[in-house]
Amino acid sequence: MPRALKVWPLLTGSIRYEKTISTRNCGHGEFIDAPILAYLIETSHGRILYDVGCDYRKVADPALRATYFDPMRPQVEPPKMQEGQRIPSYLAQLGLTASDIDLVFIGHLHFDHAGGLCDLPGCDVHIQGDELAAARTGLDGAVFADELANADQWRIKTGEYAVAPGVQTIASPGHTAGHMSLFIELPRHGPVILCGDAADLSENLVEEIAPGFCWQDNEALALASIRKLKALARTEDAQLWPNHDIDFFRGLPGFPAWRD
Ligand SMILES: [Zn+2]
What we know:
By secondary structure, this protein is of the alpha/beta class. It contains eight helices and eleven strands. The strands form two sheets. It has a six-stranded mixed β-sheet. The protein has a five-stranded mixed β-sheet with strand order 7-8-9-10-11, covered by helices on one side. It binds zinc ion. Zinc ion binds near residues 113 and 197.
């Protein structure tokens, strides 16, 4: 019998920052605590990770933490992450290892989404070509160059495609050049759209507010992606999952529970 689609939201850490990071021109002086999420998806054709959280070493080692995260102060505080929040720790609780992951789909290359790749050596990684090209310019302060070191081994993709039966990638550029969201047809719960950082907060979706950071300051592109995701949710009767919204996250199943 084929395995049914299911998704585990994985809390890989948290990060406190000025709300304007998530909501462009809104929330000056207001700080929020945001979950840093990855998602494990089981399909009939294997297991997929959508994003992988931070590089644990850069958070746990004081010298590395200062090097990488002090420059982001005071707007962004260093992330918090425990050993048990590394992806392999979550996999181990399910009796799995990195070798049981068939595909790591990286929605975008910011440190809180791609840093954890160092914990998943040998995994098949998918990234959009324009995302990687923009990340390699060095112009995006939320991309750490050393986290692109193995990019020559990644699969460079263009545009939208099905990664497995019932799992479809959705282009949602704006926050970054090649940002991708993920559409998952859950059998019981119905379709879900993992927005990624196209929509950090429910507020981004409801109020149609662009993320604070937009690649090349292209706010219009980010807003178009928010509207695209909303339109898709309407036509497919899908639920939109914002990516850094602590209140929304609290309504999701807590590991090891899943949504199917
Ligand atoms: Zn993020």
